[in-house]
Write a structure and sequence with these properties.
This protein is of the alpha+beta class. Strands 3, 4, 5, 6, 7 and 8 form a 6-stranded antiparallel beta sheet that branches. A two-stranded antiparallel sheet has the order 1-2. A hairpin with a 2-residue loop joins strand 5 and strand 6. The relative contact order is 0.23.
């Protein structure tokens, strides 16, 4: 597989996020479901039934419709390859030292140019973002305690 420099991918990711108006804080997921800490008995919301990508690479149309957070693309070619992960699922986004853990729902997972990329919804403020797989602690589909 041809490796694409991460900086080229990030330009596409940021362009996709900007074009869709993502990245700003909000109180709803793309599917219109309210997020927040009091959504379920465990403080985690129910996983969404729409607003995510499974089994294929996302397109710009997916980002524009709210079904994806990013597009892995070089020029006109989509280069993303879906990762074999349960989507959606609960996770923590962690910092390099592991001391900060942000509650998220993973809604997209693709490999692009040798980098495993994750699209997520932040539970506490509804914002969306992109990180690398190594930045997440995957928790599965059962709400954590």
């Amino acid at each position: 597989m041809r490796k694409t420099p991460v900086h080229q991918l990030l330009l596409v990711v940021l362009a996709a996020v900007s074009a869709a108006g993502l990245g700003a804080c909000g109180s709803e997921t793309p599917s219109g479901e309210t997020t927040g800490s009091g959504s379920g008995a465990s403080g985690w919301p129910v996983l969404p039934s729409s607003g995510f990508i499974v089994g294929r690479a996302a397109s710009m149309a997916d980002v524009e419709s709210g079904d994806a957070v990013f597009v892995a693309q070089v020029g006109e070619s989509i280069i993303g390859v879906p990762l074999d992960l349960q989507i959606p699922q609960y996770a923590y986004l962690t910092d390099a030292g592991g001391s900060d853990r942000i509650r998220v729902i993973i809604v997209q997972a693709e490999n692009a140019g040798g980098t495993d990329m994750i699209g997520y919804l932040q539970i506490d403020d509804g914002s969306q973002g992109v990180g690398t797989l190594a930045e997440f602690e995957l928790l599965g589909i059962i709400p954590p305690e």
